[in-house]
Write a structure and sequence with these properties.
Helix content is 36%, strand content 15%. The chain is an alpha/beta fold. The strands form 3 sheets. Strands 3, 4, 5, 8 and 9 form a 5-stranded parallel sheet that branches. Strands 1-2 form a two-stranded antiparallel sheet. Bound molecules: zinc ion (2 copies).
Length: 243
């Protein structure tokens, strides 16, 4: 059959008959070009108000207006706010893990969809930004993982929104994995881990720092410190999910 003479949608329909697409989470049959079924998309755990205006930590109970959580009150953040639309729980957490550690590169698409939802957040909408800035990986970690998950997601957002990526940070120190450390240990472990690349100016620029997950905020905070010291006008953080 000469598929090139058929309309594109007919070709896709034919291909999807031969190779039906399946939901990346539950395996249900889905339309070609989709990655998750409607049921799984609905089950992704969203961050609903009320939440901390600075770090997006959700709260129980009815609190009106903007406020900061106890966690933020004790810390000095170098970013203006950290925005996520989803909790790092269940399926969201699993897909991020599969993307990062199990080389399921196609999962960048649903993760970028979730990340892009934060572009509609009032804190991001409040003022324009100049660049997406991905949190860098150390070159040794990059060789091991083959891609920087933050850079891949930032590139997808850039394609959709037309705003450019500024890959301006370098990870100088190879830090051991952070997962077993508490907040103070993480901060100590990350001290001077990042640098600004040579000949890149961020002075007066409004930046959106991009990463996959925000846990304690120590990594993005250390990146923000470097950007702030280099004269960035504002630094807002966007992650796919928040721990
Ligand atoms: Zn599903
Ligand atoms: Zn907070």
């Amino acid at each position: 059959m000469r598929l090139s003479f058929l309309p594109r949608s007919a070709v896709e329909a034919f291909v999807s008959l031969l190779y039906p697409a399946h939901c990346a989470h539950c395996g249900a049959q889905i339309e070609a070009r989709e990655f998750l079924c409607g049921g799984c998309l609905e089950n992704a755990k969203r961050i609903e108000p009320p939440f901390c205006d600075t770090c997006s930590q959700p709260f129980d109970g009815a609190i009106e207006g903007t406020f900061s959580c106890a966690n933020c009150a004790q810390r000095h953040f170098h970013f203006d706010c950290a925005v996520s639309s989803f909790r790092s729980r269940g399926m969201v957490r699993e897909l991020i893990h599969r993307f990062k550690y199990q080389h399921e590169y196609r999962l960048r698409h649903p993760l970028a969809d979730w990340l892009a939802e934060s572009l509609h957040d009032a804190r991001i909408q409040a003022r324009p930004f100049d660049f997406y800035v991905p949190v860098p990986l150390h070159p040794a970690r990059l060789r091991e993982r083959e891609f920087n998950q933050a850079a891949v997601l930032a590139d997808l957002l850039a394609k959709r929104s037309g705003k450019p990526v500024l890959d301006c940070l370098r990870r100088e120190r190879y830090t051991t994995t952070q997962t077993r450390f508490d907040r103070n240990e993480r901060m100590e472990n990350l001290r001077n881990a990042f640098n600004l690349r040579k000949n890149i100016k961020v002075q007066g620029k409004h930046l959106l720092l991009i990463d996959d997950v925000l846990t304690t905020g120590s990594t993005v905070n250390e990146c923000s410190r470097v950007l702030r010291e280099a004269g960035a006008a504002s630094i807002r953080v966007m992650t796919v999910a928040r721990g």
